[in-house]
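Recap quiz, item 2
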Amino acid sequence: MAEINRRLVRVPAAGLFLLITWLAWTQNQNAPAELNLNKVRDNLYEIEGDGGNVAVRVTTEGVILVDDKYERDHDPIMAAIRSVTPQPVKYVFSTHYHEDHSGGNAKFFPTSEIISTQNARSSILEHKQLGASPNILPARVVFTEETSVFLGGAEVRARYFGRGHTNGDAVIYFPDLKAVHMGDLMADTSDLRMGTSPTVDYNGGGSLLEYPKTIDNVLAAYDFDAVIPGHGPVTNRQGLATYRDNVVKLIVRAQAFVRQGKSQAELARFMQTEYKWAPNSLPQQWSVPGMMKELK
Amino acid sequence: MTGIVMAQLHRSHIKRRRLVQAGNAGLLLFVGCLAYTQTRATPELKVIKLHENLYEIEGDGGNVTVRVTDEGVILGDVKHERDHDALVAAIKSVTPQPVKYIFNTHYHDDHSGGNAKFLPTAEIISTPNTRAHLLEHIRPNIRQEIPNNQPGRVVFTDETSVFLGGVEVRAGYFGRGHTDGDAVIYFPDLRTVQMGDMMSGTSPGVDYNGGGSLLELPKTLDKVLASYDFDTVIPGHGPVTNRAALVAYRDNILTLITRAQAFVRQGKSQDELAKLMETEFNWAPNSIQQIQNVPGMMTELK
Protein backbone atom coordinates (compact mmCIF):
# COMPACT_ATOMS: atom_id res chain seq x y z
CA MET A 1 0.00 0.00 0.00
CA ALA A 2 2.70 2.40 1.01
CA GLU A 3 4.73 1.35 -2.02
CA ILE A 4 1.84 2.18 -4.40
CA ASN A 5 1.26 5.56 -2.71
CA ARG A 6 4.90 6.41 -3.07
CA ARG A 7 4.77 5.63 -6.79
CA LEU A 8 1.57 7.67 -7.25
CA VAL A 9 3.20 10.68 -5.62
CA ARG A 10 6.55 10.37 -7.38
CA VAL A 11 5.44 11.34 -10.90
CA PRO A 12 3.53 14.53 -9.96
CA ALA A 13 6.27 15.40 -7.48
CA ALA A 14 8.86 15.30 -10.24
CA GLY A 15 6.62 17.48 -12.38
CA LEU A 16 6.08 19.89 -9.51
CA PHE A 17 9.81 20.06 -8.92
CA LEU A 18 10.43 20.93 -12.59
CA LEU A 19 7.66 23.55 -12.49
CA ILE A 20 9.08 25.18 -9.38
CA THR A 21 12.57 25.18 -10.85
CA TRP A 22 11.30 26.71 -14.08
CA LEU A 23 9.24 29.30 -12.20
CA ALA A 24 12.16 30.20 -10.01
CA TRP A 25 14.40 30.58 -13.04
CA THR A 26 12.06 32.69 -15.17
CA GLN A 27 11.00 34.84 -12.25
CA ASN A 28 14.60 35.32 -11.41
CA GLN A 29 15.18 36.61 -14.96
CA ASN A 30 12.44 39.19 -14.68
CA ALA A 31 13.13 40.14 -11.12
CA PRO A 32 15.37 43.16 -10.66
CA ALA A 33 18.99 42.10 -10.67
CA GLU A 34 20.69 42.30 -7.31
CA LEU A 35 23.42 44.89 -7.54
CA ASN A 36 25.97 45.93 -4.94
CA LEU A 37 27.30 49.44 -4.79
CA ASN A 38 30.80 49.87 -3.37
CA LYS A 39 32.55 53.13 -2.63
CA VAL A 40 35.97 53.23 -4.30
CA ARG A 41 36.92 56.84 -3.54
CA ASP A 42 35.10 60.02 -2.59
CA ASN A 43 32.70 60.57 -5.52
CA LEU A 44 33.67 57.30 -7.21
CA TYR A 45 31.53 54.20 -6.79
CA GLU A 46 31.42 50.81 -8.42
CA ILE A 47 28.32 48.72 -9.04
CA GLU A 48 28.81 44.93 -9.14
CA GLY A 49 26.39 42.14 -10.04
CA ASP A 50 24.68 40.88 -13.23
CA GLY A 51 26.99 41.96 -16.04
CA GLY A 52 30.12 44.07 -16.06
CA ASN A 53 31.14 46.40 -13.28
CA VAL A 54 29.78 49.94 -13.60
CA ALA A 55 31.81 52.92 -12.39
CA VAL A 56 29.92 55.98 -11.11
CA ARG A 57 31.80 59.28 -11.05
CA VAL A 58 29.76 61.90 -9.20
CA THR A 59 30.30 65.60 -9.92
CA THR A 60 28.40 68.76 -9.02
CA GLU A 61 27.17 69.02 -12.63
CA GLY A 62 26.14 65.43 -13.18
CA VAL A 63 27.25 61.82 -13.18
CA ILE A 64 29.69 60.17 -15.57
CA LEU A 65 29.18 56.41 -15.86
CA VAL A 66 31.45 53.73 -17.18
CA ASP A 67 29.42 50.93 -18.78
CA ASP A 68 25.72 50.26 -18.23
CA LYS A 69 25.37 46.44 -17.95
CA TYR A 70 22.38 44.75 -19.61
CA GLU A 71 19.25 46.66 -20.50
CA ARG A 72 17.37 44.66 -17.82
CA ASP A 73 19.69 46.20 -15.20
CA HIS A 74 18.71 49.80 -15.96
CA ASP A 75 16.32 50.34 -13.06
CA PRO A 76 18.58 48.76 -10.42
CA ILE A 77 21.55 50.76 -11.78
CA MET A 78 19.55 53.97 -11.47
CA ALA A 79 18.41 52.96 -7.97
CA ALA A 80 22.03 52.31 -6.98
CA ILE A 81 23.09 55.70 -8.38
CA ARG A 82 20.19 57.43 -6.60
CA SER A 83 21.37 55.93 -3.31
CA VAL A 84 24.51 58.11 -3.55
CA THR A 85 23.56 61.19 -5.61
CA PRO A 86 20.53 63.03 -7.04
CA GLN A 87 22.62 64.17 -10.04
CA PRO A 88 21.51 63.05 -13.53
CA VAL A 89 23.68 60.77 -15.65
CA LYS A 90 25.20 63.06 -18.27
CA TYR A 91 27.86 60.86 -19.89
CA VAL A 92 28.38 57.12 -20.33
CA PHE A 93 31.71 55.70 -21.49
CA SER A 94 31.53 52.21 -22.98
CA THR A 95 34.59 50.05 -22.40
CA HIS A 96 33.58 47.70 -25.23
CA TYR A 97 30.64 46.51 -27.28
CA HIS A 98 29.53 43.40 -25.34
CA GLU A 99 25.97 43.33 -24.10
CA ASP A 100 26.91 42.93 -20.43
CA HIS A 101 28.73 46.30 -20.68
CA SER A 102 26.83 48.30 -23.34
CA GLY A 103 23.44 46.58 -23.24
CA GLY A 104 21.86 49.46 -21.31
CA ASN A 105 22.87 52.11 -23.87
CA ALA A 106 19.40 52.50 -25.36
CA LYS A 107 17.92 53.41 -21.97
CA PHE A 108 20.53 56.11 -21.33
CA PHE A 109 20.63 57.36 -24.91
CA PRO A 110 17.84 59.99 -24.74
CA THR A 111 19.40 61.89 -21.83
CA SER A 112 23.11 61.00 -21.80
CA GLU A 113 26.01 61.31 -24.19
CA ILE A 114 27.45 57.84 -24.83
CA ILE A 115 31.10 57.71 -25.91
CA SER A 116 33.09 54.74 -27.18
CA THR A 117 35.88 53.81 -29.54
CA GLN A 118 35.09 53.74 -33.24
CA ASN A 119 35.47 49.94 -33.24
CA ALA A 120 33.09 49.43 -30.29
CA ARG A 121 30.47 51.35 -32.28
CA SER A 122 31.11 49.36 -35.46
CA SER A 123 30.95 46.00 -33.64
CA ILE A 124 27.54 46.86 -32.16
CA LEU A 125 26.23 47.91 -35.59
CA GLU A 126 27.63 44.73 -37.18
CA HIS A 127 26.12 42.54 -34.43
CA LYS A 128 29.47 40.89 -33.80
CA GLN A 129 28.32 39.32 -30.52
CA LEU A 130 26.32 36.18 -31.24
CA GLY A 131 23.14 35.93 -29.21
CA ALA A 132 23.24 39.55 -28.05
CA SER A 133 20.14 41.71 -28.28
CA PRO A 134 19.84 43.21 -31.76
CA ASN A 135 18.59 46.46 -30.24
CA ILE A 136 21.75 47.70 -28.50
CA LEU A 137 22.39 51.30 -29.53
CA PRO A 138 25.97 52.36 -30.23
CA ALA A 139 27.56 55.59 -29.02
CA ARG A 140 26.98 58.75 -31.05
CA VAL A 141 30.40 60.14 -30.18
CA VAL A 142 33.46 58.03 -30.94
CA PHE A 143 37.20 58.55 -30.64
CA THR A 144 40.28 56.85 -32.07
CA GLU A 145 43.02 57.58 -29.52
CA GLU A 146 42.08 59.53 -26.41
CA THR A 147 39.15 61.64 -25.31
CA SER A 148 38.19 63.44 -22.11
CA VAL A 149 35.00 64.72 -20.60
CA PHE A 150 35.20 67.70 -18.25
CA LEU A 151 32.21 68.03 -15.96
CA GLY A 152 31.80 69.76 -12.63
CA GLY A 153 35.53 70.37 -12.33
CA ALA A 154 36.34 66.67 -12.80
CA GLU A 155 38.02 65.04 -15.77
CA VAL A 156 37.29 61.52 -16.97
CA ARG A 157 39.57 60.26 -19.72
CA ALA A 158 39.19 57.32 -22.08
CA ARG A 159 41.92 55.85 -24.23
CA TYR A 160 42.42 53.07 -26.71
CA PHE A 161 45.69 51.27 -25.95
CA GLY A 162 45.61 48.45 -28.51
CA ARG A 163 43.96 45.09 -29.07
CA GLY A 164 43.14 42.77 -26.20
CA HIS A 165 39.71 41.54 -25.20
CA THR A 166 38.38 43.10 -28.45
CA ASN A 167 39.80 45.56 -30.98
CA GLY A 168 38.00 48.48 -29.37
CA ASP A 169 38.60 48.34 -25.61
CA ALA A 170 38.61 51.73 -23.92
CA VAL A 171 40.39 52.14 -20.60
CA ILE A 172 38.73 54.81 -18.49
CA TYR A 173 40.93 56.95 -16.27
CA PHE A 174 39.99 59.15 -13.32
CA PRO A 175 43.18 61.21 -13.03
CA ASP A 176 42.32 63.14 -9.87
CA LEU A 177 41.31 59.92 -8.07
CA LYS A 178 44.17 57.82 -9.43
CA ALA A 179 41.74 55.10 -10.54
CA VAL A 180 41.16 53.19 -13.78
CA HIS A 181 38.30 51.09 -15.14
CA MET A 182 39.87 48.35 -17.26
CA GLY A 183 36.76 46.93 -18.90
CA ASP A 184 37.35 43.27 -19.73
CA LEU A 185 41.05 43.84 -20.34
CA MET A 186 41.01 42.67 -16.73
CA ALA A 187 38.20 40.38 -15.64
CA ASP A 188 37.74 37.81 -12.91
CA THR A 189 34.79 35.70 -14.01
CA SER A 190 35.56 32.70 -11.81
CA ASP A 191 32.11 33.09 -10.22
CA LEU A 192 30.68 32.31 -13.67
CA ARG A 193 33.07 29.33 -14.00
CA MET A 194 34.92 31.27 -16.70
CA GLY A 195 38.17 31.55 -14.81
CA THR A 196 40.42 34.45 -13.92
CA SER A 197 42.35 34.31 -17.19
CA PRO A 198 41.48 36.53 -20.13
CA THR A 199 38.66 35.89 -22.55
CA VAL A 200 39.68 36.91 -26.05
CA ASP A 201 36.83 37.77 -28.40
CA TYR A 202 38.56 36.90 -31.67
CA ASN A 203 35.38 37.59 -33.62
CA GLY A 204 35.43 41.07 -32.13
CA GLY A 205 39.05 41.64 -33.14
CA GLY A 206 40.69 40.62 -29.83
CA SER A 207 44.20 39.20 -29.56
CA LEU A 208 45.81 37.14 -26.80
CA LEU A 209 49.32 38.02 -27.99
CA GLU A 210 48.56 41.76 -27.94
CA TYR A 211 46.72 41.55 -24.61
CA PRO A 212 49.71 41.89 -22.22
CA LYS A 213 51.32 44.59 -24.41
CA THR A 214 48.09 46.58 -24.21
CA ILE A 215 48.04 46.27 -20.41
CA ASP A 216 51.70 47.35 -20.38
CA ASN A 217 50.71 50.46 -22.33
CA VAL A 218 48.09 51.26 -19.68
CA LEU A 219 50.57 50.75 -16.83
CA ALA A 220 53.11 53.00 -18.57
CA ALA A 221 50.66 55.79 -19.47
CA TYR A 222 48.48 56.25 -16.40
CA ASP A 223 49.33 56.90 -12.77
CA PHE A 224 46.78 55.05 -10.58
CA ASP A 225 46.27 52.94 -7.46
CA ALA A 226 42.68 51.71 -7.69
CA VAL A 227 41.72 49.31 -10.49
CA ILE A 228 38.13 48.50 -11.36
CA PRO A 229 38.11 45.35 -13.49
CA GLY A 230 35.38 44.49 -15.99
CA HIS A 231 34.22 41.74 -13.63
CA GLY A 232 35.22 40.82 -10.09
CA PRO A 233 36.27 42.86 -7.08
CA VAL A 234 38.11 46.19 -7.16
CA THR A 235 41.86 45.75 -6.93
CA ASN A 236 45.02 47.81 -7.29
CA ARG A 237 47.92 48.46 -9.63
CA GLN A 238 49.81 45.43 -8.35
CA GLY A 239 46.71 43.29 -8.99
CA LEU A 240 46.70 44.46 -12.60
CA ALA A 241 50.45 43.81 -12.99
CA THR A 242 49.96 40.26 -11.62
CA TYR A 243 47.06 39.72 -14.00
CA ARG A 244 49.27 40.81 -16.86
CA ASP A 245 52.02 38.38 -15.77
CA ASN A 246 49.48 35.57 -15.67
CA VAL A 247 48.41 36.38 -19.24
CA VAL A 248 52.05 36.10 -20.31
CA LYS A 249 52.35 32.73 -18.54
CA LEU A 250 49.14 31.52 -20.20
CA ILE A 251 50.51 32.53 -23.60
CA VAL A 252 53.76 30.62 -22.99
CA ARG A 253 51.99 27.46 -21.82
CA ALA A 254 49.19 27.48 -24.40
CA GLN A 255 51.58 28.32 -27.23
CA ALA A 256 53.87 25.40 -26.29
CA PHE A 257 50.77 23.18 -26.19
CA VAL A 258 49.52 24.32 -29.60
CA ARG A 259 52.99 24.03 -31.15
CA GLN A 260 53.18 20.42 -29.97
CA GLY A 261 50.45 19.84 -32.55
CA LYS A 262 47.61 19.34 -30.06
CA SER A 263 44.04 19.51 -31.32
CA GLN A 264 41.47 22.20 -30.55
CA ALA A 265 39.61 19.73 -28.30
CA GLU A 266 42.83 19.09 -26.40
CA LEU A 267 43.46 22.82 -25.97
CA ALA A 268 39.88 23.23 -24.71
CA ARG A 269 40.46 20.44 -22.17
CA PHE A 270 43.77 22.03 -21.16
CA MET A 271 42.04 25.36 -20.50
CA GLN A 272 39.32 23.52 -18.60
CA THR A 273 41.67 21.68 -16.24
CA GLU A 274 44.42 24.30 -15.88
CA TYR A 275 42.44 27.54 -16.07
CA LYS A 276 38.97 26.48 -14.86
CA TRP A 277 37.22 27.40 -18.11
CA ALA A 278 33.91 25.48 -17.91
CA PRO A 279 33.08 23.32 -20.94
CA ASN A 280 31.15 25.32 -23.55
CA SER A 281 31.66 28.54 -21.57
CA LEU A 282 32.15 31.80 -23.45
CA PRO A 283 35.96 31.76 -23.14
CA GLN A 284 35.96 28.24 -24.61
CA GLN A 285 33.71 29.28 -27.51
CA TRP A 286 35.26 32.67 -28.20
CA SER A 287 38.91 32.12 -27.37
CA VAL A 288 39.96 28.55 -28.14
CA PRO A 289 39.46 28.45 -31.94
CA GLY A 290 41.27 31.79 -32.27
CA MET A 291 44.06 30.71 -29.95
CA MET A 292 44.67 27.67 -32.18
CA LYS A 293 45.45 30.07 -35.04
CA GLU A 294 47.13 32.92 -33.19
CA LEU A 295 49.48 30.78 -31.10
CA LYS A 296 50.69 28.58 -33.98
CA MET B 1 17.38 94.77 -43.85
CA THR B 2 18.23 95.50 -40.22
CA GLY B 3 21.86 95.50 -41.21
CA ILE B 4 21.26 98.29 -43.72
CA VAL B 5 19.32 100.33 -41.16
CA MET B 6 22.15 99.83 -38.69
CA ALA B 7 24.72 100.90 -41.25
CA GLN B 8 22.73 104.13 -41.84
CA LEU B 9 22.44 104.65 -38.10
CA HIS B 10 26.17 104.19 -37.84
CA ARG B 11 26.77 106.76 -40.60
CA SER B 12 24.46 109.28 -38.95
CA HIS B 13 26.37 108.81 -35.71
CA ILE B 14 29.58 109.56 -37.55
CA LYS B 15 28.06 112.79 -38.94
CA ARG B 16 26.91 113.77 -35.49
CA ARG B 17 30.33 112.96 -34.14
CA ARG B 18 31.80 115.61 -36.47
CA LEU B 19 29.36 118.18 -35.10
CA VAL B 20 30.21 117.61 -31.48
CA GLN B 21 33.86 116.82 -31.95
CA ALA B 22 35.22 120.10 -30.61
CA GLY B 23 32.64 120.64 -27.88
CA ASN B 24 32.09 117.38 -26.06
CA ALA B 25 34.61 114.58 -26.14
CA GLY B 26 32.63 112.62 -23.51
CA LEU B 27 29.50 112.57 -25.62
CA LEU B 28 31.55 111.59 -28.63
CA LEU B 29 32.88 108.58 -26.77
CA PHE B 30 29.39 107.63 -25.61
CA VAL B 31 27.84 107.97 -29.06
CA GLY B 32 30.75 106.21 -30.64
CA CYS B 33 30.40 103.30 -28.23
CA LEU B 34 26.65 103.17 -28.78
CA ALA B 35 27.08 103.04 -32.54
CA TYR B 36 29.76 100.40 -32.15
CA THR B 37 27.80 98.15 -29.81
CA GLN B 38 24.60 98.57 -31.82
CA THR B 39 26.41 97.59 -34.99
CA ARG B 40 27.89 94.61 -33.16
CA ALA B 41 24.44 93.54 -32.03
CA THR B 42 23.17 92.81 -35.52
CA PRO B 43 25.96 91.55 -37.72
CA GLU B 44 25.01 90.81 -41.27
CA LEU B 45 25.42 87.11 -41.94
CA LYS B 46 25.04 85.36 -45.24
CA VAL B 47 23.87 81.74 -45.59
CA ILE B 48 25.29 79.87 -48.58
CA LYS B 49 24.15 76.41 -49.57
CA LEU B 50 27.12 74.15 -50.41
CA HIS B 51 25.50 70.74 -50.68
CA GLU B 52 22.19 69.16 -49.77
CA ASN B 53 22.00 69.67 -45.96
CA LEU B 54 25.29 71.55 -45.75
CA TYR B 55 25.39 75.33 -45.43
CA GLU B 56 28.04 77.88 -44.71
CA ILE B 57 27.50 81.13 -42.86
CA GLU B 58 29.82 84.00 -43.74
CA GLY B 59 30.22 87.42 -42.14
CA ASP B 60 31.59 88.84 -38.85
CA GLY B 61 34.05 86.24 -37.64
CA GLY B 62 35.03 82.87 -38.96
CA ASN B 63 32.95 80.86 -41.40
CA VAL B 64 30.39 78.58 -39.75
CA THR B 65 29.38 75.26 -41.23
CA VAL B 66 25.85 73.95 -40.70
CA ARG B 67 25.29 70.23 -41.23
CA VAL B 68 21.58 69.48 -41.09
CA THR B 69 20.34 65.99 -40.15
CA ASP B 70 16.87 64.76 -39.24
CA GLU B 71 17.99 64.38 -35.61
CA GLY B 72 19.57 67.79 -35.20
CA VAL B 73 22.23 70.17 -36.46
CA ILE B 74 26.02 69.82 -36.20
CA LEU B 75 27.95 73.10 -36.41
CA GLY B 76 31.58 73.77 -37.26
CA ASP B 77 32.48 76.94 -35.26
CA VAL B 78 30.18 79.57 -33.73
CA LYS B 79 31.72 83.02 -34.46
CA HIS B 80 31.76 85.73 -31.75
CA GLU B 81 29.33 85.72 -28.87
CA ARG B 82 27.73 88.89 -30.29
CA ASP B 83 26.78 86.89 -33.41
CA HIS B 84 24.72 84.33 -31.49
CA ASP B 85 21.22 85.60 -32.30
CA ALA B 86 22.04 86.29 -35.93
CA LEU B 87 23.69 82.88 -36.19
CA VAL B 88 20.68 81.07 -34.72
CA ALA B 89 18.38 83.06 -37.05
CA ALA B 90 20.50 82.03 -40.03
CA ILE B 91 20.31 78.36 -38.99
CA LYS B 92 16.55 78.63 -38.44
CA SER B 93 16.20 79.98 -41.98
CA VAL B 94 17.25 76.56 -43.32
CA THR B 95 16.05 74.07 -40.66
CA PRO B 96 13.87 73.87 -37.55
CA GLN B 97 16.25 71.25 -36.05
CA PRO B 98 18.06 72.17 -32.81
CA VAL B 99 21.85 72.51 -32.67
CA LYS B 100 23.06 69.32 -30.97
CA TYR B 101 26.83 69.32 -31.56
CA ILE B 102 29.49 71.95 -32.21
CA PHE B 103 33.06 71.39 -33.28
CA ASN B 104 35.52 74.20 -32.54
CA THR B 105 38.27 74.48 -35.15
CA HIS B 106 40.41 76.50 -32.70
CA TYR B 107 40.21 78.73 -29.65
CA HIS B 108 40.06 82.20 -31.23
CA ASP B 109 37.14 84.38 -30.30
CA ASP B 110 35.95 84.79 -33.88
CA HIS B 111 35.50 80.97 -34.07
CA SER B 112 34.69 79.84 -30.52
CA GLY B 113 33.42 83.08 -28.97
CA GLY B 114 29.82 81.88 -29.06
CA ASN B 115 30.50 78.68 -27.08
CA ALA B 116 29.03 79.87 -23.80
CA LYS B 117 25.67 80.62 -25.44
CA PHE B 118 25.41 77.15 -26.95
CA LEU B 119 26.88 75.14 -24.05
CA PRO B 120 23.61 74.65 -22.11
CA THR B 121 21.95 72.85 -25.03
CA ALA B 122 24.72 71.55 -27.31
CA GLU B 123 27.75 69.31 -26.88
CA ILE B 124 30.89 71.26 -27.80
CA ILE B 125 33.92 69.25 -28.93
CA SER B 126 37.48 70.45 -29.48
CA THR B 127 41.11 69.42 -29.18
CA PRO B 128 42.61 69.50 -25.65
CA ASN B 129 44.79 72.48 -26.59
CA THR B 130 41.82 74.50 -27.80
CA ARG B 131 40.14 73.81 -24.48
CA ALA B 132 43.27 74.71 -22.55
CA HIS B 133 43.76 78.00 -24.43
CA LEU B 134 40.15 79.02 -23.89
CA LEU B 135 40.61 78.40 -20.18
CA GLU B 136 43.88 80.32 -20.11
CA HIS B 137 42.38 83.21 -22.10
CA ILE B 138 45.69 83.52 -23.83
CA ARG B 139 45.72 86.02 -26.61
CA PRO B 140 46.87 89.24 -24.98
CA ASN B 141 47.58 91.03 -28.23
CA ILE B 142 44.08 90.71 -29.57
CA ARG B 143 41.37 93.18 -28.77
CA GLN B 144 38.35 90.91 -28.70
CA GLU B 145 39.10 88.51 -25.89
CA ILE B 146 35.95 87.51 -24.00
CA PRO B 147 36.91 86.28 -20.54
CA ASN B 148 33.53 84.65 -19.90
CA ASN B 149 33.70 82.24 -22.79
CA GLN B 150 33.53 78.49 -22.19
CA PRO B 151 35.49 75.63 -23.72
CA GLY B 152 33.94 72.37 -24.95
CA ARG B 153 33.32 69.68 -22.36
CA VAL B 154 34.49 66.91 -24.68
CA VAL B 155 38.01 66.85 -26.12
CA PHE B 156 39.85 64.47 -28.43
CA THR B 157 43.53 63.99 -29.26
CA ASP B 158 43.63 62.35 -32.67
CA GLU B 159 40.25 61.91 -34.30
CA THR B 160 36.64 61.89 -33.22
CA SER B 161 33.29 61.46 -34.96
CA VAL B 162 29.72 62.35 -34.20
CA PHE B 163 26.98 60.18 -35.71
CA LEU B 164 23.61 61.89 -35.84
CA GLY B 165 20.59 61.19 -38.03
CA GLY B 166 22.53 58.69 -40.12
CA VAL B 167 25.26 61.24 -40.83
CA GLU B 168 28.88 61.26 -39.73
CA VAL B 169 30.90 64.39 -39.04
CA ARG B 170 34.55 63.80 -38.21
CA ALA B 171 37.20 66.03 -36.66
CA GLY B 172 40.92 65.37 -36.84
CA TYR B 173 44.03 66.96 -35.37
CA PHE B 174 46.86 66.88 -37.90
CA GLY B 175 49.59 68.90 -36.22
CA ARG B 176 50.58 72.48 -35.51
CA GLY B 177 49.67 75.26 -37.91
CA HIS B 178 47.56 78.30 -37.14
CA THR B 179 47.66 77.24 -33.45
CA ASP B 180 48.69 74.03 -31.67
CA GLY B 181 45.10 72.76 -31.52
CA ASP B 182 43.53 73.20 -34.95
CA ALA B 183 40.80 70.68 -35.75
CA VAL B 184 39.89 69.96 -39.35
CA ILE B 185 36.21 69.09 -39.71
CA TYR B 186 35.36 66.49 -42.32
CA PHE B 187 31.99 65.68 -43.87
CA PRO B 188 32.80 62.32 -45.51
CA ASP B 189 29.49 61.78 -47.34
CA LEU B 190 29.63 65.31 -48.78
CA ARG B 191 33.37 65.23 -49.54
CA THR B 192 33.85 68.53 -47.79
CA VAL B 193 36.34 69.85 -45.22
CA GLN B 194 36.26 72.88 -42.97
CA MET B 195 39.85 73.99 -42.50
CA GLY B 196 39.48 76.58 -39.76
CA ASP B 197 42.21 79.22 -40.01
CA MET B 198 44.78 76.78 -41.36
CA MET B 199 43.37 78.20 -44.58
CA SER B 200 42.34 81.81 -44.41
CA GLY B 201 42.67 84.67 -46.86
CA THR B 202 45.59 84.54 -49.24
CA SER B 203 48.48 84.21 -46.83
CA PRO B 204 48.77 82.30 -43.55
CA GLY B 205 48.24 83.65 -40.09
CA VAL B 206 50.27 81.95 -37.37
CA ASP B 207 49.37 82.50 -33.74
CA TYR B 208 52.75 81.84 -32.13
CA ASN B 209 51.36 82.73 -28.73
CA GLY B 210 48.77 79.99 -29.27
CA GLY B 211 51.38 77.40 -30.24
CA GLY B 212 51.19 77.86 -34.01
CA SER B 213 54.07 77.20 -36.39
CA LEU B 214 54.69 78.53 -39.88
CA LEU B 215 57.16 75.71 -40.64
CA GLU B 216 54.68 73.02 -39.54
CA LEU B 217 51.64 74.54 -41.28
CA PRO B 218 52.37 73.21 -44.80
CA LYS B 219 53.20 69.75 -43.39
CA THR B 220 49.94 69.75 -41.48
CA LEU B 221 48.06 70.70 -44.66
CA ASP B 222 49.81 67.84 -46.48
CA LYS B 223 48.47 65.40 -43.89
CA VAL B 224 44.93 66.70 -44.38
CA LEU B 225 45.29 66.30 -48.15
CA ALA B 226 46.63 62.75 -47.69
CA SER B 227 44.00 61.66 -45.12
CA TYR B 228 40.69 62.99 -46.36
CA ASP B 229 38.98 62.59 -49.70
CA PHE B 230 37.18 65.86 -50.53
CA ASP B 231 36.35 68.38 -53.25
CA THR B 232 34.80 71.27 -51.32
CA VAL B 233 36.95 73.33 -48.95
CA ILE B 234 35.52 75.78 -46.42
CA PRO B 235 38.29 78.09 -45.22
CA GLY B 236 38.28 79.83 -41.84
CA HIS B 237 37.58 83.12 -43.59
CA GLY B 238 36.75 83.97 -47.19
CA PRO B 239 34.77 82.23 -49.89
CA VAL B 240 34.31 78.48 -50.23
CA THR B 241 36.82 76.89 -52.55
CA ASN B 242 38.17 73.49 -53.59
CA ARG B 243 40.97 70.97 -53.12
CA ALA B 244 43.17 72.49 -55.85
CA ALA B 245 42.98 75.86 -54.11
CA LEU B 246 44.07 74.29 -50.83
CA VAL B 247 47.08 72.77 -52.61
CA ALA B 248 47.89 76.19 -54.11
CA TYR B 249 47.53 77.77 -50.66
CA ARG B 250 49.99 75.22 -49.27
CA ASP B 251 52.42 76.02 -52.11
CA ASN B 252 52.17 79.74 -51.39
CA ILE B 253 53.10 79.10 -47.77
CA LEU B 254 56.22 77.23 -48.92
CA THR B 255 57.11 80.20 -51.14
CA LEU B 256 56.57 82.58 -48.24
CA ILE B 257 58.70 80.44 -45.92
CA THR B 258 61.56 80.29 -48.43
CA ARG B 259 61.44 84.06 -49.02
CA ALA B 260 61.07 85.07 -45.37
CA GLN B 261 63.62 82.56 -44.08
CA ALA B 262 66.29 83.78 -46.54
CA PHE B 263 65.47 87.31 -45.41
CA VAL B 264 65.71 86.52 -41.68
CA ARG B 265 68.94 84.57 -42.20
CA GLN B 266 70.44 87.62 -43.90
CA GLY B 267 70.22 89.20 -40.47
CA LYS B 268 67.34 91.56 -41.27
CA SER B 269 65.46 93.20 -38.41
CA GLN B 270 61.87 92.55 -37.31
CA ASP B 271 60.84 95.89 -38.82
CA GLU B 272 62.40 94.93 -42.12
CA LEU B 273 60.59 91.58 -42.10
CA ALA B 274 57.31 93.38 -41.35
CA LYS B 275 57.95 95.67 -44.30
CA LEU B 276 58.74 92.70 -46.55
CA MET B 277 55.47 91.01 -45.58
CA GLU B 278 53.70 94.31 -46.23
CA THR B 279 55.13 94.89 -49.68
CA GLU B 280 55.40 91.35 -51.01
CA PHE B 281 52.53 89.57 -49.23
CA ASN B 282 50.08 92.43 -48.71
CA TRP B 283 49.98 92.22 -44.93
CA ALA B 284 48.52 95.53 -43.74
CA PRO B 285 50.66 97.50 -41.26
CA ASN B 286 49.71 96.71 -37.63
CA SER B 287 47.25 94.06 -38.81
CA ILE B 288 46.63 91.01 -36.63
CA GLN B 289 48.73 89.09 -39.12
CA GLN B 290 51.69 91.40 -38.53
CA ILE B 291 51.24 91.44 -34.74
CA GLN B 292 50.78 87.68 -34.39
CA ASN B 293 53.22 86.44 -37.00
CA VAL B 294 56.27 88.61 -37.40
CA PRO B 295 57.90 88.33 -33.95
CA GLY B 296 57.43 84.55 -34.00
CA MET B 297 58.73 84.28 -37.55
CA MET B 298 61.92 86.09 -36.47
CA THR B 299 62.54 83.29 -33.98
CA GLU B 300 61.23 80.31 -35.94
CA LEU B 301 62.87 81.09 -39.28
CA LYS B 302 66.35 81.75 -37.86
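Residues 264 and 299 of chain B are 9 Å apart (CA to CA).
The first strand of chain B starts at residue 46 and ends at 51.
End of item.
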